[in-house]
């Protein structure tokens, strides 16, 4: 295709590709999108496919259209599928996602059964009287996936919901604003813990320090102070750690049959020919197996990589605010999956006036506790 996405030549190339794909795929209305972002994984409508190719551009390495009808030898096809990670079973349907999320919600809200009952009701309630294809919860989930995937603003999504609600039969269950859609979906998400921290990174106010107002190490106040350094400023914590527990998310992955199979790929699926393609091929991986044979015995045990860096979410370079996300990468997975956004877990978010620096181990404590379990 032409490199200039604003040219008529590129537009003609896109139309030619879509016509070819529609003639050679099983479902001409839903086609794997070869844009840079989707990478032949997501199946989208023709309209979405066209917009993706103009907005994101096509993956230039995709020269043989094997997922859109071009013939290729079986061995070559298998090699390309492995390299690109475009196996059909890697993508969960929205129904699978909804089922997994309902399982997680049931587990997360055992102590608040009314919350789960509301979710269950929304998952079973038809979008409107007589609708057998979509429920209220499934509709909101699918629409919100479109919003997130296409970068729609909250205001544009609210306008869409308002229009759809007006177009649907009266007394339909669709919310008419982003706020109410988020309110329904947020109750399905994982829980998080908001933990106060010493502004000098000495301690976390948890366990034996949970009830303290002053840091036992440096004597600093747990809360922000007013200008005279005496009165508390509405008990606002000086520094906060957001911890997203990992155990429920690990359970969620093993509950999904496809993910559970992929989590043993490092043992069952990789090629052992002396080449370094994956961390499992490295001497360090073998060294860990040697040092911890009990851990190495069960291939389902998770090998995790931890990474972090600071950023200023406000975009103001003069601001002293610093946010440090701590991410977990799951190295059990094949190389084309372990670096995908959907499998990289945000475990911690350190938010405060200064960087944690060498004291970041203080903030890792709740994560380490869960990993020991």
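-> sequence recovered:
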């Amino acid at each position: 295709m032409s490199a200039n996405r604003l040219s008529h030549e590129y537009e003609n190339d896109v139309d030619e590709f879509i016509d070819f794909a529609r003639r050679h795929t099983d479902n001409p209305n839903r086609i794997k999108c070869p844009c840079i972002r989707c990478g032949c994984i997501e199946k989208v409508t023709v309209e979405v496919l066209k917009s993706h190719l103009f907005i994101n551009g096509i993956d230039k390495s995709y020269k043989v259209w094997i997922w859109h009808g071009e013939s290729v030898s079986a061995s070559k096809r298998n090699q390309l599928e492995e390299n690109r990670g475009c196996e059909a079973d890697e993508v969960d349907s929205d129904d699978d996602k909804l089922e997994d999320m309902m399982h997680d919600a049931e587990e997360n809200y055992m102590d608040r059964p009314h919350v789960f009952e509301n979710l269950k009701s929304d998952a079973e309630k038809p979008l409107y009287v007589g609708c057998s294809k979509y429920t209220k919860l499934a509709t909101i989930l699918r629409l919100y996936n479109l919003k997130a995937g296409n970068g729609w603003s909250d205001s544009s999504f609210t306008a869409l919901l308002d229009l759809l609600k007006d177009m649907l039969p009266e007394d339909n269950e669709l919310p008419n604003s982003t706020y109410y859609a988020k309110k329904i979906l947020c109750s399905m998400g994982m829980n998080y813990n908001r933990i106060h921290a010493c502004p000098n990174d000495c301690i976390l106010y948890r366990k034996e320090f949970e009830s303290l107002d002053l840091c036992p190490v440096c004597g600093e106040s747990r809360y922000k102070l007013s200008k005279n350094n005496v009165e508390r400023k509405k008990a606002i914590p000086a520094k906060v750690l957001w911890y997203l527990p990992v155990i429920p998310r690990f359970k969620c992955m093993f509950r999904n049959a496809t993910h559970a199979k992929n989590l043993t790929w490092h043992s069952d699926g990789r090629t052992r020919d002396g080449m370094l393609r994956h961390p499992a091929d490295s001497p360090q991986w073998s060294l860990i197996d040697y040092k911890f044979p009990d851990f190495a015995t069960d291939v389902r045990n998770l090998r995790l990589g931890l990474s972090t860096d600071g950023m200023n979410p406000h975009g103001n370079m003069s601001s002293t605010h610093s946010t440090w996300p701590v991410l977990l990468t799951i190295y059990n997975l094949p190389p084309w999956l372990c670096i995908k956004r959907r499998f990289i877990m945000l475990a911690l978010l350190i938010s405060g006036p200064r960087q944690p620096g060498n004291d970041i181990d203080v903030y890792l404590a709740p994560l380490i506790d869960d990993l020991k379990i």
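Residues 8-24 form the longest helix (17 residues).
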